[in-house]
Amino acid sequence: MTKKGMDKERRLVRYLENKGYGAVRVAGSGAGTPNPRPDIVAGKPNIKYAIELKSSDKNTIYIGRKQVEDLKKFAHSFGSRAIICAWFTRERPCFLEIGSLSKTKGDNYKVSRKSIHLLQMEQKTVCL
What we know:
Layout: H1 3-18, E1 22-25, E2 40-44, E3 47-56, E4 60-63, H2 65-78, E5 81-88, E6 94-97, E7 102-103, E8 109-112, H3 113-121
Parallel strand pairs: 3-5
Antiparallel strand pairs: 1-2, 2-3, 4-8, 5-6, 7-8
């Protein structure tokens, strides 16, 4: 993981804490461990989230199919909701259910700045 990625994860933890969630970065997320781990777990008394953070200064974020499958697997075993946080430069983080993501021809996933704005207008984003 790059320092930039760790800094963004720390910023997201602070963002969630400021919204009243308990939140922590997960050590070893994406580090080639045989067990799937999200980037962040967060929750309040009646809800838990497993969050995979993807950020970019470009207009589209691509997410690998295996990473999404691992997130769903972890969330199921942890009893939480699987959420993708798409955080584009100069915008607020946006929280999405996996079903809101577009699929690519290679059966991976993607989300764009434009699609996030449309999902927000249709109230199809997760409010955290």
